[in-house]
Amino acid sequence: MRDTRESRLLLVLLIAIAFALITVDIRGGEDSPVDGARQAAATVFGPVENGVSSAVDPIGNAIAAVKDSGERHNRVSELERENAALKAKLGSDDRNRSKIRQLDSMLKTAGAGQYGIKGAQVIAIGAAQGFSWTVTIDSGANDGLKRDMTVLNGDGLVGRVTTVGPNTATVLLANDPDFTVGTRMERTDELGFASGQGDRPLRVQLLNGKANVKKGDRLVTFGSQADKPFVPGVPVGQVVRVDPSGGDLTRTIYVKPYVGFTKLDVVGVVVQAPRTDPRDEVLPSKPAKPKPTPTVTVTATPSGPPAGANGNVEQ
Q1: pLDDT 10s digits, 93-124
Q2: Beta strands in 178-226 (DSSP E)
């Protein structure tokens, strides 16, 4: 249609008629004179609207599904994060419980021997300064540590301090081949020197070649002059093998250390030696021997044949 004066007048007229019909419809309510026309239009255009709605609904549903899928994905991701955080917390709690147990055991050992200790944690392992079995701990000179101090944990002798830095220190472990410590037998007081053999039992040379030693005997540190590098009474290990005595001046035995050198964590450095030698006080109590269970033997006594059972029949 061309934009002429007549067309503009026609448009204005149609708009006026539309507003007039709307006004009449609103005022008429349910009795509106255009209600019939509206119903007829609904009859004609209703199916078309339903068809269009049916065609559009899958698209709307797909959009809603995509939206819901995104929300579900976000929820799954959130749950995964919460699960990971919970696992980390549980792992951390287990770790803390383990440290508490180790610390408690170490404090009992220190209390039994009257050792003044400085607690530390192993932060590194490996060769250092030519030693093959060493660990690094997170305490040093600023914490009062010095060279040649005894290191222990809740199980027994760990080693001795060899190098001290401001905040860290190197500990030579008792199973290192360059490690030697004086020992004393619990039962017989026999003296000797224990040397490390890596992952094998400690090798102990007893000064008495005729010493009476048996498997299961226990050893503690004998101690050093001025308590350096070793304080007395620290548990070392238990005898697992005794070489036959060949009439030599010394006798060789092999001792399994109490300490597990491959799983060290919390340790204590003895910064104050005990006033008196604790001797065997730090050793754990031996398990009580089980009492033998009394046995009762029941012997069945054979009885004689019953009366009348001699093969004769009574009349």
Answers
A1: 777 888 889 999 999 999 999 999 999 999 99
A2: 180-185, 191-197, 200-206, 218-221
